[in-house]
Specification:
The chain is α/β, with parallel strands linked by helices and 503 residues long. The protein has 17 helices and 23 strands. A seven-stranded mixed β-sheet has the order 15-16-17-14-13-19-20, with helices on both faces. Bound molecules: NADPH dihydro-nicotinamide-adenine-dinucleotide phosphate. The site of NADPH dihydro-nicotinamide-adenine-dinucleotide phosphate has 30 residues, from α9 and α10.
Length: 503
């Protein structure tokens, strides 16, 4: 893999189309910034509609390439398996690239790069298990069966927070099925997807199967989502961008899979183990500096234990180390972009204006070594209410609002009083209560006595404005394949077409 964190410094990255790096049609390159210093560290190509068209044509041609189209599912599975091995061999480099691009902790990116190959292996094994079925019909001497086929070219738009992890959830099954792909990574974390493109070719996957167009959302992303040559879209990002993409795709009647934002409720009952619950809430909202779609940013605590819980949460938050993402001692790194820092500061200020109180955090760290980067202290807000703006909108930063509740009925009202429905969590030792919550909460995932425990084997998806469609598990193989129904009459006789027989 030629794209390494060291080689990237001061370099220019081209688009990846039809198996090779290609200069952009406009000749323009844009800087990518290091979030720990706010300095540019490499440049990437700005693709326009012409480049997007070339990439989609390449992916369409690859669909018909016998080296891909006429390959057995077992052989395709082996290629995906080979890709898994290559990602694992290059895991350290890929982790370094992503850490420097989005400022997330090196230790977290390392852990993700261990999980990514496992996900490829999981879906590689499914390549020859996607089967159709035969259907008994009310006609004699008739064979009626379904086969599952690739949908075609899949357009993927991924965010900056965990680029390869997010990409893998749909790329791995799409490759296993035999689709071809055009991906647009975020302008804020572009390099790892291009590095992966090198590995895709090294794995023996034919040119054109995996193409990468880089650039900003408004230009490159918009051109991709308007292209009529795409058969299906996968989008991971904010709800507002999801709306635009779904609108563009609808013009071409193209279905989408939408993984959007969240405002997840995280619940603590009086009977819970307070220390475990505090650790769960801290991990749920402060991990990755809160830049996770499932962040448990609305914390509801049963009234009798509210004061004690807030005290313990503040005390635990005080012990969090904000620092450089490559340091082993760091718990929280910087936010990925300057705009994100402004957004987080704005939401904390609006919360205070509406009557919430900052129990801890609420500002940039005072440490002089951290002044240039986009760092923000983990923040606990009390006297919060569900109707405050910072409790309704997705902040995507290390901020949690804590609200007391008295009854289960009141809790469910509060938990579901949000436009989102991605994830939720509950801490209790009462199994009946936990299962009642799992039944009544409006969320795609429910964590009981744990939080942010994701697995590529289980289907993850959202409800309401958190999106639609699933990632993970066998369900995703169905989402990215298409049923074709075949009817065979083996009676040897064609009936008179104008004689209608009533049975
Ligand atoms: P955005 O929606 O701004 O961006 C996501 C992706 O969409 C980026 O690649 C972006 O490109 C692209 N994009 C932006 N505008 C357009 C457009 N008009 N047409 C096509 N593509 C476009 O989200 P953020 O980057 O701010 O990411 C954070 C958001 O993502 C959060 O709201 C979070 O909840 C959500 N998210 C959801 C996840 C889930 O699984 N449900 C997982 C991770 C994040 P560019 O960045 O280059 O402008």
């Amino acid at each position: 893999m030629k794209t390494t964190a060291e080689n990237l410094q001061g370099s220019r990255l081209d688009l990846f189309i039809d198996g090779r790096f290609t200069r952009p049609h406009s000749g323009q390159y844009v800087p990518s910034y290091d979030p720990t210093t706010a300095e540019p560290w490499y440049q990437f190509a700005q693709a326009d509609a012409v480049d997007v068209d070339v990439a989609v044509r390449s992916a369409r041609a690859a669909l018909k390439n016998p080296a891909w189209h006429r390959m057995t599912q077992t052989e395709r599975g082996k290629l995906v398996r080979r890709l898994a091995d290559l990602v694992l061999e290059n895991a350290e480099e890929l982790a370094l690239i992503e850490c420097r691009d989005n400022g997330k902790l090196l230790k977290e990116m390392r852990a993700q790069m261990r999980a990514v190959p496992d996900s490829y292996i999981y879906f590689a094994g499914m390549a020859d298990k996607l089967q159709g079925d035969t259907i008994p019909v009310n006609k004699l001497d008739t064979l009626n069966y379904n086969v599952r086929e690739p949908v075609g070219v899949v357009g993927m738009i991924i965010p900056w927070n965990s680029p390869l992890m997010m990409l893998t959830g749909t790329l791995a099954p799409c490759l296993a099925i035999g689709n071809t792909i055009v991906v647009k990574p975020s302008e804020h974390a572009t390099a790892s997807t291009l590095a992966l493109a090198e590995l895709v070719i090294e794995a023996g996957i034919p040119p054109g199967v995996f193409n990468v167009v880089t650039g900003d959302g408004a230009t490159t992303g918009d051109a991709l989502t308007r292209h009529p040559g795409i058969a299906r879209f996968v989008f991971t990002g904010s709800t507002s961008t999801g709306r635009k993409i779904a609108g563009n795709a609808a013009q071409n009647l193209v279905p989408c899979q939408m993984e959007l934002g969240g405002k997840s409720p995280h619940v603590v009952f009086s009977d819970a183990d307070v220390e475990r619950a505090v650790n769960g809430v801290v991990a749920g909202v402060f991990a990755a500096a809160g830049q996770t779609c499932v962040a448990g940013s609305r914390c509801f605590v049963e009234a009798p234990v509210y004061e004690r819980f807030v005290e313990a949460l503040v005390e635990r938050t005080r012990r969090i180390t904000v620092g450089h993402p490559t340091s082993e001692a760091t718990d929280i790194g910087p936010l990925a972009l300057a705009a994100q820092l402004d957004k987080v500061q704005g939401y904390v200020a609006s919360g205070v204006q509406e009557g919430a109180r900052i129990a801890i955090g609420g500002r940039k760290p005072l440490d002089t070594a951290l002044q240039r980067g986009w760092y923000f202290e983990p923040t606990v807000m009390t006297q919060a209410r569900n109707d405050m703006r910072f409790m309704r909108d997705e902040i995507f930063g290390p901020v949690v609002g804590v609200v007391p509740f008295n009854t289960e009925e009141e809790l469910i009202e509060l938990a579901n009083d949000t436009e989102y429905g991605l994830a939720s969590g509950i801490w209790t030792n009462d199994i009946d209560r936990a299962l009642r919550f799992a039944r009544d909460v409006d969320a795609g995932t429910v964590w009981i006595n744990t939080f942010r425990s994701a697995a590529y084997m289980s289907p993850n998806g959202g409800s309401k404005h958190s999106g639609y469609g699933y990632r993970g598990g066998f369900e995703v193989m169905r989402e990215f394949s298409r049923l074709k129904n075949v009817v065979v009459d083996y009676s040897g006789a064609m009936q008179d077409p104008f004689v209608i027989r009533l049975r």
